[in-house]
Batch of 2 targets.
Target 1
Amino acid sequence: MKPVILLFWSMLFILLVLPLPAAAETSPAWSFHTGNDVICADMAPDGRYGVVGSLDDMVTVFATEGTILWNKQLGGDVFAVALSPDSESVAVGSADNTISVFSRSDGTLSWSATNGDDVVSLSYSEEGDYLGVGSLDNTVSLYDRSGTRLWSVQGDSDVLAVSTTANGGYVAAGFRDGTVMLIDNLGQQRWTYQTGDAVVSIAASRYGGYITAGSLDNAVYLIDRNGGLIWKYNTGSDVLSVAISRDGDRIAAGSTNAQIYLFNRDKTLTWKYATAGEVFLVGFLAGDTRIHAGSTDNTVLVFDDAGRVISTIPAPGGSLTYYALADDLSAAVISTSDVVSSVYTHIAIDGAPAVAGTAALPTVTQAPSPVQTSAPATEITPSADGTPAADAGEFPVVPAALILLIIAGGAGYALTRKKGPEAAPPERPAFLEVNLGDDEEEELGEEGELKEAQEAEEEEAEEEEAEEEEAEEEGEVKEAQQAGKEGEGAAVEVVHEEPAFTSPAPPAAAVKPEIEVIARKEPSTAEDWYNLGRKLSREERFGEAIEAYDSALALDDADADTWYNKGYALDSIGRFEEAVTAYDRSIAINPNDIDSWNNRGTALMELQRYEEAIGSFYKALKINPRFAVGWDNKGTALLALGRIDEARECFEKALGLDPKNDTFRAHKHLTDV
């Protein structure tokens, strides 16, 4: 027994006395307070300086060594901040419709310009000579270093995100109506591409050869400089943030399904990582060799190329509201809901692997339906008292605040919860191909080239089959019906030079379904009941969703989005008369809600009240004449009444807007007999 006892005590001594490997810890060096929540931040590439913008109309500039350099009170909430690459200038976009550029050293105003509405997005070019600006007056602008506006381009809805390429060669912009636009240095609109909902994040490669967009239609898009869709990946949940490497080879994305994704340009999913909260920000660091991500589990993570977590920065104090990291990982600023911003001058590194992922996964495409209704609203809503929720699965108010303010047109914390109107697919421009530069030497192929129809059909069939397999394996929430997502065309093949990455085993921790998270807190406000209804609808528990919407309406019956979503739920279980009534209430509050008009029409068609349905579609098309689904639905109603010629005209207009939509084509064939 003595050798055993001796061994026991020896092991105990080793465990108690000798140091064991431990996960690296990162602690703040110092902190400062703001008067309200911080919703935007930036750090100098070398980590020497930082800036935050807050909802008390204040911009604060600091040196990471521990000094507040200056702060200034502006005329409205600060929605966007950006440090120039040389750290000499600080650009600020605010709710007083102003873009302001200050000297970083002493806060002297270098120049300012006034827009027609809130300035919500800023992007410096790589060398800092140009500044792209997006605002809620539907305008994208480009300024030079002196403050001269070089050009301004007007879209059809709020500009939510901009990305400026090297030398100001291009500005990519994302709009609330789902449009992605590329504008050249002469202010010429090169092309537009239509997604299914608001584009809340956009990023362009160094020379603009590749543009990635994150949309509230749940998808990540990769588009080439000529406006051709290279691929689309459906995450099953809103994509709040995307980033792209300078050479366009890798794309990162974060989604409200609590997943972080890293793709290769050929659509190979290199890895994905499950967090415990919705991912609201991603980006590349350290010469594109590191990826950062922040989520509503109040944690900022840094990954290496292989998907290993090399640094974990927990938000101190309250819930994480925003953050920024230096490109060289020398410093960070982490802002929380207790209005404290913590500055880190050392980022600890830990190489422990923590990856979950698979190799290449398919695009999720929507199946066509004879009558297409608009999908239920996307839910990103703050709590009623304006404070972030404590549960991991709820979206914190301040990261959401910027998106919500943008999407809602800057009206407080209101949220536009309905799907955007349908619009035409991108037209293939006739301009010449431009050299991609040394970092983008891979050929994009012939401009506007599409695969043959047979290959496209085979690819779509394979992707749909793979989608079903993925859904069974991962148990992802089924998507609600969505309009106008078909006919985007086959993806352009781009061959990647490196082999696909095979991911290690997934982490043990799993993310709980969203409905379990909200169930922990008894709904007490109209917003809480609305959110619960949305979650129940996404799980296709429409009867329970209707009860939740009724509870919300009992507290606030003047919310158009709640009436719209109640109508959708009623529609989904065949209670069409009640659905029409709910849509009527939504329209009475918001007469320009194209989705309520469209869904009202489809419900009336189910009731065989075709003349009234035609009237609803007419209203939708009056709001947006480029609403392809509306033309198709109107044609279907006319066809049911035997008005063949009128129906054919509608189907032809739908096809003119979306030439590759098989549903529209099939409906038109019905009028050819």
Target 2
Amino acid sequence: MKMRIGVWVLLSGIMLIAGCGGVAKDMTAEEAFTKGNELLEDGDRNKAYKYFEAAAKKDPQEPRYSWAAAQSAPDQNAAFVHVESAWKNGLKNPSTLALLARLSFHTDKRRKMEYALDLFSQLPDSLQKPELRGDIFFRYGELDSSIALWMPLYYGDHATPSLCFKLANAYQRTGNAGKARELLEHGRRGKLLEAPGYAMLATLHALDYAYDEAGKVYEEAKARGHYTKHLHLEHATFLMAQGKLDKAEQVLENVLRPAQGDNDSAVNIRARLLTGYIASDKKEPQRLDVLREMSEGDDPVHKAERSFYDALQLIMSDSTDALESFQSFYQHLAGAAAVDLVYARQRAKAGDYERAIVLYRSLPALLLRSPTIVVELAAAQAKSGDVDKALGTLSAMHVKGTLSKASLELFRDLAFRKQIFDKSKAAQAVLEEKYSDDAGVRYAGAMLALRENKVDTAIAILTKLAKDYPREAQFEIARISAIAVKGDYDRVIREADAGSAPKHLLAGLKARAYRRKGDLAGAEKALNDGLKQKRTPKLLLEYADILMVQEKHTMAAEVYQEIMTEHEERLSSDSIGNAMLLNNFAWAQISDGNIDDQVLDAARKAHELSPSNPHILDTYATGLIKSAKWKECIQLLENDSVAAGEPRLLFHLATALEKRNQINRAVRTYREAYEMSDSSATLPLGISRKKLSSYIDGLIER
């Protein structure tokens, strides 16, 4: 048995060895090589490899066969073996070196570079050029070494478009954009720039906000015959960054379709995507239909392209499904500037600021530095909580001398939030200089003055605004509010009575002035008068509050009930506001002894919406205590972390335990409330420490 297995293994090995050339056993090496090329041309890469491999085995010293086998090899290991064979058999040139270095199995970048340099030393002397050695250093990130090798060549007798671009690229990657621009301008004067060089130079000017100079670079590239399809995309992106959408669309028109006889390329698809973005921004849905018809492929990328146009139409119709639709196609279009920009905006709109920031950061530098995009990114950073980074983003643009109304306004507001008042005022000063007639800028100046306690200045600005814009009620209301800040409540009441703004908008100001004067009846009347004109939720809330202060609990409850009934839809999206409203309704009823299932249900719902609010928990617990629901009260409070830190809530728990005849637990809980009662609790205990101590002693004796 053992002998038979051994023979089978031996036979299998012989068959395996023979199988390497089995596909071409009757062919010469050259015939197998020719057959492999035919199969490769027909698209049968796997079968072509078998013929190339057979040719290489028949004549291992002919590097052409090994090189062809490497190009179609099924895996890295096989490719490396074939390229190494081609190299050893004389195919020592830069292309073989680059492929061999790429396929090598060194995982460390330094080791990979050393291996590539060792291969370089094996090249014929005529090929061991300093420029190629610099290429190797550049590939592995040793940029200073590349520059040191290339600079003498460029400024010697070896200046070429390729070397000019490579040097500029190396300097830009080291962070020296100024030197990169200097090199490219030198190449421009010497007519050494081709499409990549023109693209980089235009971008460097644009990133420095020298838009006019960048525009000249694109026009020069066009005049000198270097206006490639890729440069069309760069130019269109540059125009979009400035908001020149019509001009960008004209540039893209030339690359929306492939040239006659060519297949649809990535450039064509990206051009259409950018055009789709422009059509969406210009609210031209019919243009999207045309683009959709141009995209004819059935592959995943073309299908995703058409889905993007569908998403743009959803956005134009304000559909809530727009963001969700991106999930079905984004993976196939990620990296396309138009798609990333639209997706970033949708993410920001949905409140997903972290993801939006990542998407904004992925945009091409030309777009990312656009004054519009800078403000969008900074706003997302601020809303994500990183105000410092937002200020830095805006400052990077402002320091270049590029200012917009939106960027200055955001910078002003963020600087004020961080209490950097000098910078906030400086931004406002620039706004007032540039946009002196803008009502919004003037209004912001008044608000800034108020925050700095320059009340008279604010009143003067607002008085002028109210006079200039008599139909804008907000200026009149803000003016009277500023008077209230001064503490002149009698004047507030007079101004509110004489004001031209709708009475229901002034009623709250007037009521608050009466309250400040201690005239609660006057405040109630002012609110009642306003409600006769219009029963807004804000005014109703103020009215209910003044009723509660006067202990008119039943009336207040009726007002809270009205708000919940009449404005249910508006409240449904505000869980905290709804919780407070339900709580106030329940507390008003409980305070008057009107405790039924509806009241307890309102208190329970409020607690469910805001379980960490001690005031809401107190309302619910009080309702349960007053309706003798001792067991439910114990279940509510005994393991609640909020109750554990509030002596008033512990007192409720102790009361319920006592009523359930759990005296020992009640005593311990009363003592906890007593010991905690002199701490900085949110809720007042509701009983003096002396009375509570006496009560505990009496309970123990009992």
